[in-house]
Design a protein that fits this description.
Helix content of chain A: 55-70%
Largest sheet of chain B: 4 strands, antiparallel
Number of strands of chain A: 2
Shape of chain A: globular
Strand order of the largest sheet of chain A: 1-2
Distance between the termini of chain B: 59 Å
Strand order of the largest sheet of chain B: 4-3-5-6
Number of helices of chain A: 17
Order of helices and strands of chain B: HEHHHHHHEHHHHHHHHHEEHHEE
Distance between the termini of chain A: 44 Å
Strand content of chain A: under 5%
Structural class of chain B: alpha+beta
Helix content of chain B: 40-55%
Structural class of chain A: mainly alpha
Strand content of chain B: 5-15%
Shape of chain B: globular
Radius of gyration of chain A: 25 Å
Oligomer: heterodimer
Number of helices of chain B: 18
């Protein structure tokens, strides 16, 4: 009997504590609606309306890149070269819209490193071409392939198409150069197809895995998306702007380290990249139709920044960052030397965005960045 | 000098009771440690945490503790595993328990970024276990040499473990008595809503009242569970709560083996009869190999008078330190959660959502040139995450950068940081004075004046 009495006392205390705590919640209900946030809906939107179309577009551009390459290598003329350059530019742009999704299929294919390790190693590329012996899958060739290597082969430093054409026609290693170019294009094409198939509902159906795993830990879709978005964004900030600007070399600019150095489309690519990240954040597809995204999730949990909402702070910063990137005159490799202050301003905005995206966002959503044991900071 | 209370206490603590609860605790502790080591090994964490990193955040005063390289680390974990196994089966008990304590604590001292209260708890218990005669019953030592066998020990030997366990809970509860936890249900509100994907319970995880309920219930549980486990009448129901509580924490948090360890460790609050039943249950299995079941004769642990004094002295000293350590933060200005001065070794478990990002800048004082420091490959993801919110680690890394740049030929580097921290979802704010040259700042137990105040406009 006495045992039962104690049990009742124990439970009653719990209930009283609970009752006290319930009284406190009134003011918070306005901030946090009781309706659950539709995480599956957000992932379905991002998966179906952003990721799948982005990969489909990349596949289309890789298909035409391969086709143009075959036409060019079969018949290298100024016309086929220009056509190939145009297809390449489009493929590089479309890649920017896939760069963030380095999980699942893209992680298996190591897409980021295989597609876009820059600056490329021109000495290694030239030696591969002249010897005609190389293994693109080996780690030694990681900076002798992918989009940056094609960028080098199709544009060179002087961008003189007659000269470039001669390297594929009259040069003694012309045949080797064509083979190398083809090998690079084919590798990208094969990997793009593999990722597409793996995501497709008629193939590996990773889209289903992505949509159904709504966890915020390292293996959950929200966790992976947020962590990769951050990783990718820091890559954008550091590799694409910071390093060329000399941020890691005590202010000594390194203009040759920009992305797409030879085709000089660095700023255009950075802009595509940041727009892609903005769209993921907003859950907005390429037709500008705005569905559920991380912005809605942040608003749902009532995330604050200063006196306003975190979502507004992030949206405003994204807009400012884009404006400051657009303001950079000429090519990026020229600007990091001639217009340091303007590039610096853009960089500062990106730096502020890193804080909001990497500190405030995960910390408001409870997203974990590692899988080692923790007892809460 | 006779105080009735003191006499009553000492009489009760020195009273001979059956050794069974302590022995079952030894088996459980050794077994769980062995399982933890195997799990750690299989997860690849030896490599990830102690072999791969190029930089390690040492503890103040323990800078001499270094990782032992690939072979060395695996060997150390192997020894640790064997020691845990021997503790469990009670073979060369004193030596094994000593070896386990040394190897485990050595590993924990290598890198601050892996600090967990759970590991600290295990180090303490491992140390206490060296001093206790937990290998003198139901062990291979007594099977080999039955003369070593004892059946009864002074109650104080069991009470020590109970008190240590009780303190962990109690201080974890005290730490929860802060405004964010009680009146904002933070950080549970952030953490729980991330778990709407778990079956059944998921539905409740983003309800605000649930976060409040968990916060208050958690605080109440931690503060009272040692008491309810100590009282015979409430023990069984309290133990049900222990199981529910720890299973919940296991589901909701990335908390490793700790919930299982606590669920089994708290069994030590149960009676000797209960533990004798456990032992005879295990014996039923082992008796297949061991035909003769010895008649149980009471053999008391002989506590020599001179040793009693030393032991009781140590006991008082240890628990006094344990009692005071969590309050050392009171000597420092500003908020504990912000400064983290006096945060570790105080059973502050799952208490705050703190995240940060630190940009390091280097200036060549001779030329005036400056830029961001190259940090990308020095730290692991986990190290960077832990460092970003803990100022003593930021200092250590700044000093490392100074040396790194000196080796690169910059004789006179200045290291400054731009550091942002967000605490319990309040939004990121500047953490450290960005003009302070951190190479000129010493780490230590004094107030970190270069931290910016937690309340900023």
């Amino acid at each position: 009997m006495r045992l039962r009495k104690n049990v009742i006392v124990f439970l009653l205390t719990g209930v009283i504590v609970f009752a006290i705590s319930s009284c406190k919640k009134d003011k918070d209900e306005e901030v946090l609606p009781e309706d659950s946030f539709d995480k599956s809906g957000m992932l379905a939107n991002i998966g179906d309306n952003l990721i799948l179309p982005a990969y489909a577009k990349l596949k289309l551009s890789m298909d035409s890149l391969q086709l143009s390459n075959n036409l060019f290598t079969a018949n290298p003329t100024l016309l086929t070269l220009t056509e190939l350059q145009a297809k390449f530019t489009q493929a590089y742009i479309n890649y920017q819209w896939c760069s963030t999704y380095e999980f699942g299929p893209a992680e298996s294919e190591v897409v980021r490193a295989n597609f876009n390790t820059f600056p490329c190693d021109t000495i290694q590329i030239n030696s591969n071409i002249s010897s005609g012996i190389y293994d693109l899958a080996s780690a030694a060739n990681i900076d002798a392939k992918g989009l940056p290597a094609i960028d080098f082969l199709l544009y060179r430093s002087n961008q003189d198409n007659n000269y470039i054409l001669s390297l594929f026609t009259t040069s003694i290693s012309a045949s080797n150069a064509k083979n190398y170019l083809t090998a690079l294009v084919n590798e990208l094409k094969i990997k793009t197809d593999a990722v597409n198939t793996a995501w497709s509902s008629t193939g590996g159906n990773y889209i289903n895995t992505f949509k159904s795993s709504t966890g915020s830990d390292v293996g959950g879709s929200i966790g992976m998306l947020v962590n990769q978005l951050n990783y990718d964004f820091e890559l954008l900030k550091n590799a694409k702007i910071g390093i060329p600007l000399g941020k890691k070399t005590l202010g000594v600019a390194l203009p040759e380290k920009v992305e797409a150095y030879y085709s000089t489309q660095s700023i255009a690519l950075v802009l595509e990249h940041i727009k892609s990240i903005e769209n993921i954040y907003l859950g907005r597809d390429i037709q500008n139709s705005d569905g559920l995204g991380l912005d809605d999730y942040l608003d749902h949990v009532g995330a604050q920044y200063g006196s306003g909402s975190l979502n507004n702070a992030i949206k405003n910063k994204l807009t400012t960052a884009k404006t400051k990137l657009i303001a950079i005159p000429g090519t990026l490799s020229q600007a990091v030397i001639a217009n340091t202050t303007i590039v610096d301003n853009a960089y500062a905005e990106l730096q502020q965005l890193v804080i909001l995206l990497k500190v405030d966002m995960p910390s408001s959503l409870g997203v974990l960045i590692t899988y080692v044991d923790s007892d809460g900071d | 000098m006779n105080f009735p209370f003191k006499e009553k206490c000492s009489k009760r603590l020195m009273e001979q009771v059956h050794i069974a609860p302590l022995v079952v605790f030894r088996v459980v502790f050794g077994g769980m440690m062995l399982a933890s080591i195997i799990r750690f090994w299989l997860n690849g964490w030896i490599e990830q945490l102690y072999i791969n990193p190029t930089f390690f955040f040492t503890y103040y005063g323990f800078e001499w503790v270094k990782p032992l390289g690939e072979v060395g680390m695996y060997l150390l974990f192997f020894i640790m595993g064997i020691a845990a196994l021997f503790v469990m089966i009670g073979l060369f008990y004193r030596l094994s328990s000593l070896l386990f304590f040394i190897s485990f604590t050595y590993v924990e001292l290598i890198d601050k970024s892996t600090y967990l209260n759970h590991y600290y708890f295990i180090s303490i218990v491992a140390f206490l276990m060296i001093l206790l005669p937990a290998g003198k019953y139901f062990s291979l030592d007594t099977f080999i040499n039955p003369k070593k066998r004892i059946t009864h020990i002074p109650r104080i030997f069991i009470f020590i473990i109970q008190l240590q366990l009780g303190m962990v809970y109690f201080f974890a509860g005290v730490a929860k008595l802060n405004p964010d936890w009680l009146f904002d249900a933070q950080p549970l509100r952030i953490w729980l809503q991330a778990h709407t994907d778990i079956p059944i319970l998921g539905y409740f995880m983003d309800k605000v009242w649930v976060a409040y309920f968990f916060s208050w219930f958690g605080a109440f549980y931690d503060l009272t569970i040692p008491l309810f486990l100590s009282i015979k009448k409430t023990r069984t129901i309290a133990y049900v709560f222990v199981i529910v509580f720890h299973v919940l924490t296991r589901i909701l948090f990335q908390i490793g083996m700790f919930p299982y360890i606590m669920i089994l460790a708290t069994l030590i609050f149960f009676s000797e009869g209960f533990h004798l039943k456990i032992i005879s249950a295990i014996r039923k299995i082992t008796d297949k190999f061991k035909k003769v079941m010895e008649q149980e004769v009471t053999i008391n642990y002989q506590f020599r008078r001179s040793i009693v004094r030393v032991f009781v002295g140590f006991f008082i000293l240890h628990f006094s330190i344990q009692l005071l350590l969590p309050f050392r933060y009171l000597f420092y200005p500003d908020q504990l959660f912000w400064t983290e001065q006096g945060y570790r070794f105080s059973w502050r478990v799952m208490l705050m959502e703190k995240a940060g990002k630190t940009f390091f800048y280097v200036t060549d004082n001779d030329t005036g040139r400056s830029g961001e420091a190259m940090v990308d490959n020095d730290l692991t993801v986990n190290q960077e995450k832990m460092m970003a919110t803990q100022p003593d680690m930021i200092i250590q890394y700044a000093h490392y950068l100074k040396e790194k740049y000196q080796k690169l030929g910059i004789k006179n580097p200045k290291i400054t940081v731009e550091s942002y921290v967000s605490l319990n979802g309040k939004g990121s704010r500047l953490y450290i004075n960005k003009y302070v040259d951190l190479t000129k700042v010493r780490d230590g137990f004094h107030h970190k004046w270069w931290l910016l105040p937690s309340e900023q406009k």
